[in-house]
Every structure is written in structure tokens, then in C-alpha cells.
Amino acid sequence: MFAVRVAVGRELGPFGDAPGATPILNVPLAEAQALAVAAAGLTLADAAPVDEPYLCFGACTWFTADLLRRFASGGPGRLQVDDPDFLRDTSPLQPERGLYFVAIRAPGQPPGFDGPARVLDLGLRHTPAKAPHPAFAHAYRGEVALGPAMVHELWHWSHVTRVNLLALAAQAEDARATWESGGVFARLGLVLPVLWRAKSVHPAALARALLPIPRSAKVHPTAVIEACVIDEDVEIGPFACVRGSVLGRGCKVDAYASLNLAVVGPGAQVGRGAMVNLCVLYAGAFVSSGGGFQMCVFGRDSFVAMTATMLDLSFGRTIRVDTDEGRADTDGYFLGGAIGHGAKIGAGVRIGYGVAIPNGTLLVAPSGDLVRRVEPSATGDAVWAVDGVARGRGTG
User: Fold this and answer.
1) Which residues lie closer than 8 Å to 231 by C-beta, 6 or more apart?
2) 2-176: which CATH topology?
3) Domain ranges of the chain
4) Digit-coded pLDDT (tens) for 142-172
5) What is the pTM of this model?
6) CATH node for 213-363
7) Model confidence at 394, in pLDDT bands (50, 70, 90)?
8) Phi first, then psi: what are they for 224, rounded to 5°?
9) Burial class of residue 275, CB neighbours in 10 A (0-12, 13-18, 19+)
């Protein structure tokens, strides 16, 4: 069966990029779509065939190969998903809840997504989501639905983190399905190479050996690396902890940094002691320790200085964000922010959840309490700062 890409979608603010250029596990979405189409046994075509059914998909739609295989086996119609747990986490800011720009078209029909919807059972696993602390319980609403067959569309910068997390989960679910469907010899074929690389049965050693580390990578022996994808020329410093993440070519993780389920682009850097969870760093981004970052997107060549803070959890109402149509509700309580391409965030800046900083912005904190000059009398133990000047006793 042939597959045809249809120009559906819009530029993602604040980055101004077409959806097809958005990195998904460090691969542009357009390329990720082509890989999934090929893995599903379909042929990507420039034009729709006229004498046979074909699949068409939107340029803004991310999907797995397993989803395409399941959907392509049925008759004409547009993809619809009705799993409530899956939709709760993936439908916010989507144009049509549960409907996706994936369709099977009848012979002779032009590419498009009109016509009846066809509900597809994704075969998802539902697992309970347990809050790490009672204070976070309001942000955990029901079970998490994951599986090898998943789909999401990119209409907003917040979808960049969600799609990358789904892509990470899909890889894990593929590995799980391969393990569960394999026989004894197939499982031995998976286990023995890991044991050979680990040279130990210790859980930490096994986790580090799940995926090979390139010879060109420089990983300090004290670093903890578990179930990651590491590209060439990556550097990971002493006592860094990296779990379930994708590290692009030439990126750097400094000492004591902590990364969990993060995607770090080529040449990007995570500073000393930084905490980066559930985040996406475009190529060349630099993120310092700051106040810890979760569910954030850092644009290409952006910079975030030490002591900068981005909030990510609302304890009141659900988080609202700016869209092309105005303010919109994400229907969730957990979301960081977005830093545009080339933007620079100075020390001490505090950014609220759901806020997007435009490309090229230089954002600095208020400087009213910043000492800019010291008077000669400012000595001893009776010195204070007034209007940016350090003054001594009796200077007024």
C-alpha cells in the first residue's frame, strides 16, 4: 500500500518551525514519519494512486509503525481513538478530540480527511500513575495508557515534549512486546549480549549495558547511565545520572547533572548539577543548574543561566497557554515552559508554567537590589545596599 503526506498543520510558536522540522528523539518529524511508513511495510509516494486504496497522513502527525500496520489493515475512513485514558493525556490543544490526520482513502479519492471516522483499538496497556507526594495528587488523574501503537499531532510547543515522551515510551513498549512474544532462544539472544557488555548481574551494570555506548563517547566511570541512547562524541561527567534519555551527537552532560526521560539535541549541554526531567533540548541549547527543569522545551542555541527558574506545577487551576487563537486551557496541572531559538535567560529570572519566550529574546531579572557600586565608606560590619550602591555607616 502507498502512503501520501498531506500538508496539514502550522508553524509551532515560539520557534516558528514547520511541524516536519520538529525533533522527535533527535530526528525531524518528517523523517520519523518516513521511517515509520517504511517499517510498517508501506511505500511513501509523492502522489496518490488512482487504482488502489492508499493511506494519507498529515505533515503534523506523529505515529508509530505499529499504528500504521493496524490501521492500514482495515477499510476506508479517518483514524479515531476512543481510549479515555489516552485521550485525557494527549487530546489537549488538538483540533478535534480523538480524531487524527490519518486516513485510508478509496481508489480515485483525492488525499484528504473528510468522510466517516473509523475507531481503532490501539491495544494499549493501562498502568496506575502514583503521585510521588500527596501534594502532587491532583496532577495524577487516572491510569496511563501506553503501547507500541500510538499517535499524536503537533499543534503547539507543549506537544513537543509530549510526543517525544510518547516516542520514548513506544520504544520501551516495542522492546517489551519483543521480549514477551519471543521464545527461550529468542530471549537468550537478547540477554546474552547485555550480560557480555555488563560483565555483571548487578542491576546498575545491566541497565548501563542495555544499549551500547559508542567508542567516541567519553563517559566518566562514576556516571550512572541506564537504558539510554547515546550518539557519537557524547561527554558525560563525574557523578552524572542519566536514565531513559536520548543524547545527540556531541552533546555534553556535566558533573552531577541528573536527566530522566529527556532528549538532548546535538551539541547541546546540560550544566553542572542541573536537573532536566521530561524535557527536550534542541541542538546547541545550554541549560544550567537553575532551579531544576521539567516538561520544558529549549530551542536551538538557547541559553539558560544559573539560578533561573521555570515553574512546572500548578496547585490551583489548570494551566493555560497562548495559542494562535488566544489563551487556551491545557486541561492539566503539570507543564513547564518553552525557550525560543537563540533566546537567553539571565540569572534569577523566574518564568511561570506554560509561558513561551520568543526567539532571540534576552530576558534579565529585575536589578533593583543588584550592587553596582561600592562607596569608599562601605567597610566593616555596617554596610548595606541602597539603590544599587553599597554604603557604609553615616553615608545616608
Assistant:
1) 26, 214, 217, 247, 248, 249, 250, 251, 266
2) Spore Coat Polysaccharide Biosynthesis Protein SpsA; Chain A (3.90.550)
3) 2-176, 213-363, 368-396
4) 899 999 999 999 999 999 999 999 999 998 8
5) 0.90
6) 2.160.10.10
7) low
8) -100, 120
9) buried
